[in-house]
Amino acid sequence: MSRTDIATTTSPEVSLGTGLTAETLYEKCTVLAHNIWWSWQPEVINLFRDLDPIRWRQLDHNPIALLSEFTPERLEMRAAELVLFSRINHAYRRLKEYLAHRPIWAKTHSGVLGSMPVAYFSLEFGLHESIPVYSGGLGVLSGDHIKSASGLGVPLVAIGLFYDQGYFKQRLDETGWQQEEYLDTKVENLPMEPAVGPDGKPIMIGIDTRNGRLLAKVHLMRVGRVRLYLLDCDVEGNKPEDRELTSRLYGGDNRTRIRQELVAGVGGVRALKALGITPGVYHLNEGHSAFATLEGIRERIKDDGMSFDDALRDVAQHTVFTTHTPVPAGHDRFDGGLIEEHLGPLRDELGISFEQLMGLGRVEPKNDHEPFCMTVLGLKLSRKANAVSCLHGHVTRRMWAHLWPWRVEEEIPIGHITNGVHIPSWLAWQMRQLYDRQFAPDWFSRMGQPEVWQAIHEVDPGELWETHHTLKNLLLSFVRRRVSRQCRRRGESEEAVERARNMLDPNVLTIGFARRFATYKRADLILGNLDWLDKIVNDPQRPLQLIFAGKAHPADQPGKELIKRIANLRHDPRFADRIAFIEDYDINVCRHMIQGVDVWLNNPRRPLEASGTSGQKAVLNGALNLSVLDGWWAEGYDGYNGFAIGKGRSHVDVGLTDGRDGQYLMETLEEEVIPLYYDRDIDGLPRSWIKRMMNSISTLAWRFSSDRMVADYVRSTYLPAAGGVSCDMNFR
Questions:
Q1: SS (H, E, C) 611-645
Q2: How many CB atoms neighbour CB 652 within 10 A?
Q3: Contacts of 440 (CB under 8 A, 6+ apart)
Q4: Is the separation of the CB atoms in 575 and 534 below 8 Å?
Q5: 249 and 166 in contact (C-beta within 8 Å)?
Q6: Are residues 411 and 434 in the same domain?
Q7: Are 463 and 477 contained in the same domain?
Q8: Where are the beta strands (DSSP E) in 162-309?
Q9: What confidence tens digit (pLDDT) does each residue in 390-409 have?
Q10: Are 532 and 570 contained in the same domain?
Q11: CA-to-CA distance for 453 and 702, rounded, in angstroms?
């Protein structure tokens, strides 16, 4: 297989006759289900849903699981009933055309990457709710990254781990306390197959450690034009504990963590070699996969006869590193014993001492008391390093300035590429239809161009508001179903269940808050004064309602306390009908919320939100952001496209910061958000609010898309790292 084939190889061809047989229909649907491309194609989603709407919802919108309940003959009968033949043929043809076509953007901008693809490493990938190998923001960002790489045609392969139990399912008990449940994923219901090498045989890689050999098989998922390879340690030949190594995401202790990262980094590079893929660039998405650089050095020493120093320089020239974590505690660190146990045999092959190896992961190489830090390794062994927003860039340069003590902060070699979101994945079908009617015919192929989105100002305000209201009603129906089911599961009274079925009002200003329940994200900031909250929530003329969702890490007790506090507001008669907590936050819950709320609330303790992307998803669907000036919002807010909490300042005293921000939040709600929402004209339309919705969409949608983000990575990091730019004066 040539390197060029890597990015464009399609699904296996289906042998189809000219007749439209039951087997042909079934096979076409199967091909569609096995490429995750379907997940951002509304027409294909609707096609699968129409086959059996109830089972579609019950099966977490999983087309493979759905098709497993059909025979070819039953599918043919159902297709005949619904007149689906032409839709199936059309969807299948579109997929084949998509895979065969290389976009113009890639032809003109990818350059040398066509023969030397990018290898994108991430510990999790959030692609769809039916594929549970993600936990939250980092994984969803990785998923959006490779979807946009597919859309732009960037030659890229992705490497991660397969977790057969994924992240946990969240359930709240009768006290409101988070319970974690781990369920085995049915592999047969995933769009996955064994990855095979040039010889056609399934790939198995091995990694020697001081206490034995680790084995991993490799799975292949197709994400449009991009191939995603997932390593799995549940194989014969591994010790029983090692077979469980990749079962759970972010589970276990530090020893589990280093072994997972060893498999992702070292194992990932070995898998690529076994596949016959020679990358031009390693992109390490966070420090978790930084061991990949050490394996890259080993390959160059073994294959090309380089010295260690020359191999290190060569790998560093071709490595791109992205950091997402603005606090020191969030960076993985391992003691010398764990490093030697797991990297000792690799160190032997590198021909370096234990002290030299440890020095690569230390700020002070000769400090024997300093542990090995994965982020330090990533920064030292990369050509290009970046944070994920402008403000995060400042924070990161300050945080790691001691790695370059001879440089002033402004010259620390860490830039920033602000995160974005994959528009087709997060744009509601109803909004897509509105844009299709009002925007230029080719708008969807020009999503990254700001002029395309200016057409939103030509949309009839009433039509935009009606579309938004439709999505809001869908959200509230979803919330009522989920909350009533939660009540029934906990054994609450029929009265409580019935109340849940009738909670929330579509005519009331609705605020959404959904994310990981880490304490710095301050989910309870709006709860600082419950008497005040009661006053605005139950205002007879201008009421307010709130929807919360999110998980706390299993070991995060303060985060669990936050969830308990919010969830138990259902017992307070002041808030029972106006505040809801949805269990088991995932991509599906996120999709409903960002598409249906009026306001997206984000109030982290500045500057601890590296970027944030949930608010970017809300923009696409007309929701307005109400946020602290942190992460992406610090560069997105212009005074007319949403609302700001505070002035972008933080006090050195955390308590004072929280108190001040809580006051700012109250004032902004009372003085700006609520009056604007309820200011209606004679037709009942909030004209000024709709104008702000339009400003939000026109100024932010194009700018904070993952297409723009991936294009920035190609131009600013991938091409220089691959050696494919005609002029680069940025020496490092």
A1: CCCHHHHHHHCCCEEEEECCCCHHHHCCCCCCEEE
A2: 6
A3: 446, 452, 455
A4: yes
A5: yes
A6: no
A7: yes
A8: 169-172, 178-181, 193-194, 204-209, 212-223, 226-232, 281-285
A9: 999 999 999 999 999 999 98
A10: yes
A11: 7
pLDDT in tens, 445-493: 888 889 999 999 999 999 999 999 999 999 999 999 999 999 999 999 9
| Domain match, 515 and 612 both | yes
Cα–Cα distances in angstroms (integers) from residue 360 to residues 167, 207, 209, 238, 707, in the given order:
31, 20, 19, 29, 34
Is 112 among the domain residues?
A: no
- For residue 410, the enclosing domain spans 117-168+181-419+712-722
As a whole number, mean pLDDT of residues 363-371 equals: 95
Distance CA 703, CA 709 (A): 9
pLDDT above 70 (res 10): no
Under a CB-based contact definition with an 8 Å cutoff, are residues 317 and 383 in contact? yes
List, in sequence order, the alpha helices (H) in 59-189: 63-67, 72-82, 85-100, 104-109, 137-152
Cβ neighbours, 10 Å, residue 665: 22
Tokens 């191999």 sit on residue: 311
CA atoms within 13 A on the CB side of 421: 24
For residue 668, give both structure tokens. 């902004």
Task: Work out how many domains the chain is built from and give that number.
Answer: 3
Averaged pLDDT for residues 554-582: 94
Q: How many CA atoms lie within 13 A of 314 on its CB side?
A: 18
Omega into 543 within 30° of 0, i.e. cis? no
Q: Which of 189, 186, 188, 215 has its CA nearest to residue 202?
A: 215
- Reply yes or no on whether the pLDDT at 240 is more than 60: yes
Strand pairing class (333-334; 372-373): antiparallel
Q: Is 392 in the same domain as 489?
A: no
User: Is the domain of 592 the same as that of 465?
Assistant: yes
Tokens of 81: 């009933």
